[in-house]
Structure formats: structure tokens, C-alpha cells
Specification:
Strand order of the largest sheet: 7-6-5-8-9-11-10
Number of domains: 1
Order of helices and strands: EEEEHEHEHHEHEHEHEE
Strand content: 35-45%
CATH topology: Rossmann fold
CATH architecture: 3-Layer(aba) Sandwich
Low-confidence stretches: none
Helix content: 10-25%
Distance between the termini: 55 Å
Structural class: alpha/beta
Largest sheet: 7 strands, mixed
């Protein structure tokens, strides 16, 4: 059986944004997919690494630290954010997305995790440019003044960005500006479509006291093989 539903479509400055649901015979279930132009951005068929981003990032925050203030860059299908909420230490979570359409999808509860995300009082959805917020000084936006963790899942990788304006974040200077938004001992974690790249680990190491690169392997029911993503975790000096 083949079934395809276009749930939402909108023109955006970065291209045509589409949310669709289709039946996937490999898993005998519906999957939700997001496309930007002709590029596939994300699928509910593959959420292991997106969830690992939150799990690994928050696990790197000192275990005795409570009432965590967390920012998630990139809302997407919501799996990174919903995984962060599973950590009971999280006191507040601001999810930043530059595309109002994506926020609207969740407000209309079109995605499998939308209700759980919106019904949790710790969640705030913010329409803003995450990269512009990180260029600014702490206190210049509506983000908490100091954060315990920043979890980012927007670009394909540090070297393959969705928009050229994002590239400056992945430099030493860009990461130093981002680090100003973290408390001492705070964590920056980043999802990548590719396994960790040594060159970017070195860049992170110029700013953060501890840096780890994790390769996340997961079964791919479409190819009947194994796929790999990356998660970078960088901890600021305490």
C-alpha cells in the first residue's frame, strides 16, 4: 500500500518547506518527513541520533547540578526537545527555530510528539534566528542569562550548513561567542549527519575544556543496513 499526505507547505527564505506523512512498507507504519526544497531534513524513521544529542549533552552536565536551563537550537520534528524533557533536572527549555511554519506545525499538533512537548510547562517555543542569538551578548535576548546546556540540531554538519550565515558559529570566534551564554561547566552539544570530524574537534578544543565525539549507529530499515551520525559534546571549564 502506498499513501502520501502533504500536511503543510510554505515558501520560506531558505526554500520551500514541506511536512509530509507517508506509509513506509519497511516498518509497516507511517513516517513523518521534512523537506527543504529537494533536500530531506529529517524523518521520524530515524530519531536515534537526535535523541542521543540530548542524552549525551545533558549527561555531560555535572550530576549534582539541578534546575537546568537548556536551549535547543532547531525544533524540527521535536525529538531532540522531547528527549531533553526526559531529564528531570531540566527546569526550563527554550526551543529556538527560525521558521515560524515549524513552530506552527507543533502548535497545530501535527507531529507525534507535539502534544507531549507543548503540554509540558517547562517548554517554550521561540521564533528567532539561533545563530543571531549566539552572536549577541548574554542578556540581549529573551533567553535565560546563563545556560547549563545548548543542544544544536540545525545544519547537516559543521562544514555543510543549510545557510551560509550559519558558518561563523563553527569557528573558534563563533564558539567563543556561544560559550559566553553558558555557565561555567556548561555544555554545548551538536548533532551532525556525519561522524565526528577531527578538524572540528580541534576547533572545539580551542574553546572548551573537554571535548568528545560520538558516532551514533542505528539500523536503517530502508537499506537493511546500518547508518551513522555524529554527536559532539563540549564542556566549558568549571
Amino acid at each position: 500500500m502506498f499513501r502520501f499526505d502533504e500536511l503543510a507547505f510554505e515558501h520560506t527564505p531558505m526554500g520551500d518547506l514541506t511536512l509530509r506523512r507517508r506509509y513506509e512498507p519497511a516498518v509497516s507504519a507511517d513516517v513523518f518527513e521534512v523537506k527543504l526544497g529537494e533536500e530531506y531534513l529529517m524523518s521520524s524513521l530515524f530519531t536515534v541520533a537526535e535523541e542521543a544529542l540530548s542524552e549525551l549533552g545533558l549527561a555531560a552536565v555535572a550530576s549534582d547540578r539541578r534546575e537546568l536551563d537548556v536551549v535547543v537550537g532547531g525544533l524540527g520534528l521535536g525529538y531532540t526537545a522531547i528527549a531533553a524533557l526526559r531529564d528531570e533536572r531540566v527546569e526550563s527549555m527554550t526551543v529556538v527555530d527560525a521558521l515560524p511554519a515549524v513552530i506552527n506545525w507543533h502548535e497545530r499538533r501535527l507531529l507525534p510528539v507535539s502534544a507531549a512537548l507543548l503540554d509540558d510547562a517547562r517548554t517554550r517555543l521561540l521564533h528567532a534566528d539561533f545563530f543571531a542569538l549566539m552572536r549577541g551578548a548574554p542578556g540581549e535576548s529573551t533567553l535565560p542569562l546563563a545556560l547549563d546546556a545548548i543542544l544544536l540540531d540545525v545544519d547537516h554538519s559543521p562544514t555543510f550548513t543549510l545557510d551560509p550565515s550559519h558558518a561563523d558559529l563553527y569557528t573558534v570566534e563563533g564558539l567563543r561567542r556561544l560559550a559566553q551564554h553558558l555557565r561555567p561547566g556548561g555544555v554545548f552539544a551538536l548533532w551532525s549527519d556525519d561522524p565526528p570530524e577531527p578538524a572540528f574537534l580541534d576547533t572545539l578544543g580551542a574553546v572548551f575544556a573537554r571535548v568528545d565525539g560520538h558516532t551514533i549507529e542505528f539500523d536503517n530499515p530502508v537499506t537493511s543496513g546500518t547508518s551513522r551520525n555524529g554527536v559532539y559534546v563540549a564542556v566549558l571549564a568549571a
